[in-house]
């Protein structure tokens, strides 16, 4: 059985380290002397050999093998290069214990195997201390710490240039402590597509092809505009290819595609208009035409005009330029500078201000620049302090200054209801003052009643009616016979009425009007006397009835007490 006497075996283990693999070929130079079983050199022969590297001196695992030929010299010396036919991968030397087995055909493998050792300075591969630079090709695996800096502890820098990447992974919470600068773009997390220059992508399965884009985290977010940003959340989109500087803060399925448009969060919101903003909410939309518009939140709100505002609510829409819906439900502001609030308010005219109550029905404006309120529970204004009125209506035009209208036919219905609870006798529930005057023209009326009447009710009423009759007294001489034998000439009757009212004083001015439908002519009334709380009134009737007849008709005296 032949044997090999190792004459020289230089194992360039350094060549297999991933740190310097590009500088040294993947080859090992091996020399020896081949002798026969008697110890004599095998001279000038060609022998087939199999070279095998194992993980152990016996048994073990084969990590590399190569079959080739050796050519001996006169003294049996041969030289062979391992890896010439089958290159040796760097993984062969990922452990310190490696053994070479040699088989010269047709004999079995020689024993013992030869341990492969490092040549002189190749042992320095266990430490790169003192290295002054160089290029690394392929992957580098660190099983300890990587620190950048000089020998005395001054900080250094780890630079990653465009076209390469730094992957940090593991189960022990791997990370970066301190400042980190990436020249080019940075991608953190799995399944990302980052095709933009100077783009930053983090999270999972996020996508951008835009330069200077930012996806700070989240899941399946997309940036499709220059310098646009998605802060987090899932399935959000910022930018629209040619439209940039858009921002989605978070939430789910939100879109900000207008230039400088912003969606703060929420779900399924879309800001398409230039510089438009949706703070949050659900399914709110700002149209492409609705530049500089804002929806603060709510559900299913919409803007179409320029510079519109919807504060919140549900199903509200602002269509007119500078129109506003502060909230509520199903309100629409169509006119320019219009305002709609409450429920189903419709500001359909420019400058209209429409406020609707909870009634489930549309409530439309009628005119431009109109203030219109639907309040089925009434409207109440309370004030205290100075002498200013609680409500002050001012009209500088030619039309009506204000109108109060009721369509309710009930007895207690009133379009304008004034109440005074003050104890001061001059504190009026409704006060009308006429101050206008022109030369030769009477003053404008402070209070005008057109085609109607004044009805006063309550315990302390300054107006009302008292009955008169059926007791009458004839107060003139009857003419019995004028020659024709009858008694139907004109005669007169009278009756007295006492009016009792705590509002009556000695200075009161009392207006009196009779209500009489007897057979005689119309009745007349006059004030006989008045004292505090009481007035005496006489009712006179002229007619052609027989003065001896008994008069029984009745009627009423209507009165109005006016105190200075």
Description:
The protein starts with a strand and ends with a strand. Strands 9-11-13-15-17-19-21-23-25-27-29-31 form a 12-stranded parallel beta sheet, with no helix packed on it. A 10-stranded parallel beta sheet has the order 8-10-12-14-16-18-20-22-24-26, with no helix packed on it. It is mostly beta strands and 564 residues long. Strand 3 and strand 4 form a beta hairpin. About 3% of the residues have low confidence.
Q: Can you tell me the overall shape?
A: rod-shaped
CATH class of the domain at 3-125: Mainly Beta
* Number of E strands: 39
Q: For the largest beta sheet, what order do the strands appear in spatially?
A: 9-11-13-15-17-19-21-23-25-27-29-31
Quick check: average pLDDT? Answer: 81
CATH topology of the domain at 3-125: Immunoglobulin-like
**What is the CATH-assigned architecture of the domain at 3-125?**
Sandwich
Distance, first to last CA? 150 Å
CATH superfamily of the domain at 3-125: Immunoglobulins
Considering DSSP H and I runs of 4 or more, what fraction of the residues is helical? under 10%
Using only C-alpha atoms, the radius of gyration works out to 55 Å
- Give start-end ranges of low-pLDDT stretches: 7-23
Number of helices: 0
